[in-house]
Amino acid sequence: MNILGGRISRVGLAMTGKKSPWGGSGDASSGDGTSGDDGAEPEGDAAPAADGEQPAQEKPAPAKTGAPRNPWLPPSSGEPRKPAGIEDIFRKRGGGGGPGGGPGGRGPSFRMPQRPDGKSWAPIAIGVIVAIWLGTSMVHRIAPQEKAIVTTFGSYSRTLNPGMTFTLPWPIQSVAAEDVTSIRRESIPDGDGEKLMLTGDQNLVDLTYLVRWNIKDLKLYRFQLAEPNQTVREVAEAAMRASIGEVSLNDAMGAGRANIETNVRERMQQVLDAYRSGVTIQGVEIKKTDPPTKVVDAFKEVLAAQQDAQSEVNRAEAWAQQLTQRAQGEAAAFDKVYAQYKLAPEVTRRRMYYETMERVLSQTDKVILETNGGVVPYLPLPQMKQTQQETVQAPAKGSN
Questions:
Q1: Cβ count near 148 (within 10 Å)
Q2: Where do the domains of the chain lie, and which CATH numbers do they carry?
Q3: Strand stretches in the chain, DSSP E
């Protein structure tokens, strides 16, 4: 390709009439003393001699003193200057040219940098890479809240506790660390979704709850279940539906929520232990218990009526409690009077008679006086008292 490019460049120079920078003129003859045709024989060659005759001696080609000196060749004495081709230039710069710098090639060679003593850096680079690989795959630091599983060719080998530890390099042994102390949370349902469940009295309730759990056995957690997190969510939903189906709607939305949470946690732990999941349920928290969205208005009306009914029941119970306390007080007072009556029956009877008559007669306008003649005169004392008051008030008005 380089030879073809050189020929094309020489043809172009010849057509433009310019001189070649490699030592030849712009005519058909080349700068090395040969004709423009590459296949033509040089002029100094003699014809082959016939049988029995001595071959003619070659005449040296006359030196061309008018050609410019090739700037790429060192000056020489007594020898004709021959312009160098582009292949010679790359051969001298690349140490022979060709792919990889071999003889007969056409491209420059690229070599790795060498150390000052002439040796290659490749062994040192390989050693550094091997040291980094061994350091990262054999030395492991386990955090205080973590534990790690060591597998040998994919099979369980041992469990590593927190601290610095060593294993065989990868791919012989692999280490997978996991946080086993932090509490993990699963919110059911995700986001603002609706989770409807059926209560024991055939009502629907929308539940949102939170499950808290952590890892108890890392070996079981990693190798026993394919998807531990998804398993915990599914077990939680099954346990919650079973617990909600045992209570009424009022208990699910009222005071029975604490018992539901306890039942769900116990059910989940039993199922996960049967699965040998290596998971411990720390707690279940019900965050919201609402009626379904489509019937929320009617449910609010029913709830308001129930609250009004409960208010009336509470008011009646309060009134009944007041009457009961009053009756109990009167009974206690009568017991005290009866105790005194047993001590002095006649005195107590007379005192009770006087108190009763005083209470009755205080509400009437008649006054009865007792006399010795047997006739009981009637004196209108209330009317007399009223007349006396009017007489006293009349002069006071006249003076004004």
A1: 22
A2: 1-29+82-97 (no CATH), 124-179 (no CATH), 185-290 (3.30.479.30)
A3: 139-142, 146-152, 155-160, 163-166, 173-179, 184-188, 196-198, 204-215, 279-290
User: Tell me: the pLDDT tens digits for 250-282?
Assistant: 888 888 888 999 999 999 999 999 999 999 999
CA atoms of 347 and 170, how far apart (whole Å): 113
The length of the chain in residues reads: 400
Q: Distance between CA atoms of 18 and 221, rounded to whole angstroms?
A: 86
CA separation for the pair 330, 338 (Å, rounded): 12
In angstroms, the CA 348 to CA 341 distance is 5
Encoded tokens for 211:
């499950």
Give tens-digit pLDDT for 167-216: 888 888 888 888 888 899 999 888 777 788 888 888 888 889 999 999 99
Angle between helices 86-94 and 2-16 (to 10 degrees): 140
Q: Can you give the pTM of this predicted structure? A: 0.47
- 191-208 burial code (b ≥16 CB/10 A, e <16): eeeebebebeeebebbbb
Question: What b-and-e string marks burial along 246-285, b requiring 16 or more CB atoms within 10 Å of the CB?
Answer: ebebebbbeebbeebbebbbebbbebbeeeebbbebeebe
Q: C-alpha distances in angstroms, 257 versus 24, 51, 68, 282?
A: 106, 127, 108, 17
Residue with tokens 């094309």: 8
